[in-house]
Every structure is written in C-alpha cells, then in structure tokens.
Amino acid sequence: MAPERPKGVDAIPDLIRVEPSVTLPDPTLYAALDLGTNSCRMLIAEPKGSHFQVVDSFSKTVQLGLGLEASGRLSRASISRTIQALRICQKKIEKHHVRHMRLVATEACRRARNARDFIRTVRRETGLQLEIIKPEEEARLAVISCAPLVSPKTEQLLVIDIGGGSTELVWIDLSDVEPSQRARAIMALHAGFRSELGAARVVDWISVPLGVATLKDQFIDVENDAARFALMSWFFEENLATFSPYNADNTREGFQIIGTSGTITTVAASFLGLRRYDRTKVDGLRMTSSQIDTVIRNYLALGPEGRRIDPQIGRDRHSLIMSGAAILQALMRVWPTDRLSVADRGLREGLLYQQMNADGVLEDGPLR
C-alpha cells in the first residue's frame, strides 16, 4: 500500500493557489515562460492577495539541448520541436490578452553557438521575444519561488534546482532574521544576492553545468546501469568542490534543504505511489534520506526497460530519471540533513513573483 502523509504532518501550506482555468473580466494577467535544456513550460496567472492564482499553463518536453554536448549547437530538429511548443504558448498568451510577461531561456541557449540565431528565429516565427538569463538570476528566481516552503525554524537553508543543462545551488544564512520573517526575507532576494543587516545572507551560490540531460550525455557510453549511476553521482559531487559550504562544518539543527525539479517531484510521486501525478500531495512533502534512497534503489532494480513503462516515472522522464537521481543522491550525501522539502515550483513561479513585486500588485506591496 502506498504511503500517505497524515493530514497536518510535515505539511507546509501551499501558498500558491493553483485552481482550474477561469475567465475573468479584464484581469491583469502575467505570463512566465521557462525554456530549458529539456522542457518548455509556461504559467499564466493573476495576482491574488499576497500570492497568485494560475489561470492557464503549458508544459512540453522539447529536448532543445539534444546533441548540444557533442556539437555545441542547437539542432534543426530541436529548434523545430521547440518552435512548435512556443507557438502553443503564443496562442495562449493571445487568448488571455496577457500584457505582462517574461519569457526566458537558460543553459542550452547560454551554451549554444547558434543561440542568437535561434532567438531571432523564434521572434520571426512566433512573435515571442526570448531573453537568455544568467545563471545567478536563474538561481535567484528558483530561490524566491520556494520562499513559502521555508520553515520559521530554519537558520541555514540550501535550495537546489536540478535542471536539464545545469544545477543551481544557493546556501542562505537566516540566523539574523526573525523566525516569523524568514520566508519574507527569502522573497526579498528577488532584487539580488546582496547582504544587509537583518536580511537573508547568501553565503554562496553555484551553477554546476551538469543537469539531467548534460550529465547523462557524459556517461552515455557506459553500458552497465548501476555503474553508470555510480559514476554520474561521483562525477557530480566532484564539481561541487568550489562551493564554499561543501567542505564546511555544518550542523543538522536549524538546517533545511529544499529541492525543486522534475527529478525531485518524480521521486516524491514514486514514494507516494501516485499513478496519476497530484501536485497538492507532492508540493511541500518532506522526505527522509532513507525514503529517497529506497525509491532510487527501486529505480535501479527496474532497469532501463522497467523505468520506461513505469507510470509513476512517465515516458517523458524515464531516460533522464537516473541522471537526476544521481545528482539528488550526491547532494543528500554531502549535506547535514536527513530530510528534503519537495517543491513543485521553480523558475516560472519566481518570474511571476518578480514581475508582480516590481509592479506592486500583490497585497503586501513590492518586497524590497
């Protein structure tokens, strides 16, 4: 029988209200699009109180970065798939008369030699203007999206965002912030990773150029499934050496790690035994290290063919789940915690909060 979280136990309130699509008279809507190495994802939302209500969404695996590791370029096939997805996004934006939007591209476009040509092609074919953002902004947006999941007891926070082409890690010291203000202090980082008295202090951050797609490509020639997994986990950890908290002495007390990515939400769904994904059960779930290890061992026992047909993994993710799990296991092995807070939120939610804060449309006004 699949384990279920008892009501009220380890639950963190879901402050982002996700409700069915609605049509409202002249709403002020915002769009946020995240074009990553593997996926194209968009949210359209309306400000509601201190948060927002999602009125439409889109997500599709486009594999924009397929073959990038070898060629250094975005392929014609990848560009074609991506433009088809972006046309759907453009139609949704037009349908809802969205006037406020940020449409961003990340690691694949940062690395590809023909990225600028791709951006111009997208503008010509869809009318959408993509913006290639820097790793620091990507990390910052992931952090502020997770602010509602920060516990008042947290003094040291690690936010991890496992993407298709890169993995962002941000370590934040909240010990000088009043417990009741810690989530809000995280939101205030939307303006930049700066340090002020009484504010959240970013100890260090890093963008590791290894995500689920790029790490998989590094070891594609290793045939043995278990050996490939072990090598990926070891190799990822080797790339953490320049992250200052890696070698620091840290305590478990007051420490929280929040993870946001398709890998982490898939592991959570597998742990819960969900045959149909349910965001309300996954977002805010806390998993122990042993629970995560059990799920990963089960993935290894399934083998490539078993993972391909497993409904909890899904056909869009089966080929990338082990590289993502290798990253996750390495991170849980390194830092002093036996629990992970699962976040079904990320860059898109961060983009929405950033825009709404800047425009002062949230109930509490823009964060400073």
General description of the model:
This protein has 368 residues and is an alpha/beta fold. The chain folds into two domains: 17-134, Nucleotidyltransferase, domain 5 (2-Layer Sandwich); 137-347, Exopolyphosphatase. Domain 2 (Nucleotidyltransferase, domain 5). The chain is 39% helix and 20% strand. The protein contains 13 helices and twelve strands. It has helices spanning 68-71, 76-95, 107-111, 115-126, 135-145, 182-187, 212-218, 225-238, 262-272, 279-282, 289-309, 321-334, 347-359, and strands at 17-18, 30-35, 39-48, 51-61, 100-105, 131-132, 156-162, 167-173, 201-208, 255-260, 286-288, 339-343. It has a six-stranded mixed β-sheet with strand order 1-4-3-2-5-6. Strands 9-8-7-10-12-11 form a six-stranded mixed β-sheet, sandwiched between helices. A hairpin with a 2-residue loop joins strand 3 and strand 4. Helix 5 (135-145) crosses helix 13. The longest helix is centred in the last third of the chain and has 21 residues, at 289-309. The chain is globular and about 45 Å long. The chain starts with 16 loop residues before the first strand and ends in a 9-residue tail after the last helix.
